[in-house]
Amino acid sequence: MTKPIRVALLGCGTVGTQVVRLMAEQSRDLEARVGAPLELVGIAVRRPERHPDVPQDLLTTDAQALIDSDIDVVVEVIGGIDPVQGWLERALEAGTSVVSANKVLIAEAGAALHDIAERSGADLYYEAAVAGAIPILRPLSESLSGDRINRVIGIVNGTTNFILSRMDETGSSFAEALAEATDLGYAEADPTADVDGFDAASKAAILAGLAFHTPVVASDVYREGISNVTAADVASADEMGCTIKLLTICERVGEPGDEAVAVRVHPAMLPRSHPLAGVGDAFNAVFVEADAAGPLMFYGKGAGGAPTASAVLGDLVAAARNKVAHSLGAAVPRYAELPVRPMGKTPTRYHISLDVTDRAGVLAQVAQAFADNGVSISTVRQEGRGSDAKLVIVTHIAPDEALAETVEKLRGSEIVHDVLSVMRVEGKVQ
Amino acid sequence: MTKPIRVALLGCGTVGTQVVRLMAEQSRDLEARVGAPLELVGIAVRRPERHPDVPQDLLTTDAQALIDSDIDVVVEVIGGIDPVQGWLERALEAGTSVVSANKVLIAEAGAALHDIAERSGADLYYEAAVAGAIPILRPLSESLSGDRINRVIGIVNGTTNFILSRMDETGSSFAEALAEATDLGYAEADPTADVDGFDAASKAAILAGLAFHTPVVASDVYREGISNVTAADVASADEMGCTIKLLTICERVGEPGDEAVAVRVHPAMLPRSHPLAGVGDAFNAVFVEADAAGPLMFYGKGAGGAPTASAVLGDLVAAARNKVAHSLGAAVPRYAELPVRPMGKTPTRYHISLDVTDRAGVLAQVAQAFADNGVSISTVRQEGRGSDAKLVIVTHIAPDEALAETVEKLRGSEIVHDVLSVMRVEGKVQ
């Protein structure tokens, strides 16, 4: 019989439990696909008594000793930086391949971990870290490796997408929709990582790094969450035939010779005709634009134990196959070393709804405020409302700071009674 | 300098021309990703004078001599079985890796070619053979290799999708929509391969083989084209909130212990709410259902020179990387050896519109015809039309032959004046 591939599992929460189940249920299929049996040697957890549903003899509290016990592939589903980073570095240094679902660690230390993996001849895979079950990292780094990717736009956080979908459907406030998400288990007790965009920012860094062959970390990512999105914003979007999504946008910007990458996470109005606009509830989708391939979209479940475990097992099979064949998966070249463009210099478009004094010359004054900042206006809609008027303005593309400064100037203007809604816009809107 | 990877290109039509262009334009990026420069050593074509736009010194009419000139990767974009199969077999036997966009050959001889590749330690990749630019084969065989795929439903032929989209939008006949597709260059002068479903059947065989780890060839695929789809079918579909698509369906059928695969290509009614229903014009999409991952969808351009070349180059980079690393990509295990279930025994559902005599007892007689064949009815809608009535019936799932026999029996019945529309149904309809 072929020598088994020895697997250590670090962590046994929602995802880990499913990994254990699927490894057992599909052991014969996995063996046929790998070319050797997969042997789960141990499961490192902090409190074994909390894990009654997995084989008890596999549980250990000593992750380090488990990693050191002649393991071929370490599967990590704990999350966070410490103490996981040290464990995975030590595993990779010993030539043990690593499969991780840890977006925070990969976004922070992915480049360093890849360096160790490359030096010691180990694989490092983390498909589960971005968009759960959706195969997106392998397509980006392998299928599209002969193409030039220009943009990756994704909905990669299910919690915020659920909240925004509810606000869109019911007209509810952010607080109401968040409460509903918490009740249904879509939002955690402390929802900060999701609603403030930290989770999406980690995923953005990973996507941008692979798409543009350049090192990007989470702190390079401009990040704005959804807690300031109001029912008025949602209504304004609807009037324009748009919906609001928390978008993860990674793009090449600048002219040849002055190329950079811009990576950002923020809510944005998106026309309902855009393929991403129909992605509802806790689903995820990633839209990719490449020179030769054109537009591509990948859609599926972005979270949950079984979907995430599917991605983990796909990586585990790949790492195990390579161990059997004494080969290695594709490296992740970061040769491009493109600089990261700060948000202020990144080209965006704004939608701005203003409550203004309804008298002749007001539009001219407002338009002048845009012109002063070098911002060109795409469309204006003016609606009289008694002594006030409502102005709905969509700009052309301009540096984000010029747009933000224009909004600040308008806020301070005596003719502007209220700024009703300010929201960036993606895609073609009327 | 690292030794270059020597590449031979067989064929230089729409796709080949783009491969040459992209290899030249992106040579520095490709070199960085591969870890060695890619050197295009020669382009084998039948008539060099027809290719004024590629470097003339690379053109040769002697494909065999080119393949034999110490090549690392052969890229084949000619298509068809002869003489290509012999060339690719000889290349693989010599340990030369092969990248092919040839769906006909892979559907017919993929297993044999993989056997040679495995014996001689060469790679065989063909992402471009199915759904153009959409990364679908690598996700199926690698990303989902730890999961159990139950179903793959795709729109993988752009010509027929364009024709059906036009029929749906304008109410035109098949002949009119085909003429429009021909005028616009979406259909070839001889459209048989597309409209009769041969192209989709080849792709179905490739998808099923990878999804179910089982050998499937094009002749295993049940195939029905779109030339019999009428404006009446399209109108009937619309009344049910459906559109008609030429679907490629690969699925596991049967109980454990009696498992099989069913692979079929035929037009079907699909509810407009289904993710595939919105795939218009010449776009392709593939919907995958897996046990743990749940539903996944992949969307993009299914044909055209540049999109297909993107997929070819992705494979070329993978094969070249492996040459540099002296390693091999994942094998394509076909261990499952599941039998292919004939269409008659495959579970399907029908929509049937009948023009019947409008008198008491007719519905009972029609219902009895279904019952006699063991077919259970899901919904019936009855509309009086003067002395006639129209019956619109949607069945529950039954073996296809039981449904087909019921239709035949109804055709011969004296109470049925006319069979207005018969169409299989996928997804949930009312």
From TrEMBL, chains A, B:
PANTHER family documented for this protein: HOMOSERINE DEHYDROGENASE (PTHR43331)
Binding site for NADP(+): L10, G11, C12, G13, T14, V15, G16, T17
Catalysed reactions, semicolon-separated: L-homoserine + NADP(+) = L-aspartate 4-semialdehyde + NADPH + H(+); L-homoserine + NAD(+) = L-aspartate 4-semialdehyde + NADH + H(+)
Protein name: Homoserine dehydrogenase
Pathway connected to this protein: Amino-acid biosynthesis; L-threonine biosynthesis; L-threonine from L-aspartate: step 3/5; Amino-acid biosynthesis; L-methionine biosynthesis via de novo pathway; L-homoserine from L-aspartate: step 3/3
Keywords, sorted A to Z: Amino-acid biosynthesis, Methionine biosynthesis, NADP, Oxidoreductase, Sodium, Threonine biosynthesis
Record-listed L-homoserine binding positions: E188
Binding of NADPH, residues: K103
UniProt domain ACT: residue ranges: 351-424
Any one GO biological process: methionine biosynthetic process
Tree of life domain: Bacteria
Function: Catalyzes the conversion of L-aspartate-beta-semialdehyde (L-Asa) to L-homoserine (L-Hse), the third step in the biosynthesis of threonine and methionine from aspartate.
Spans traversing the lipid bilayer: none
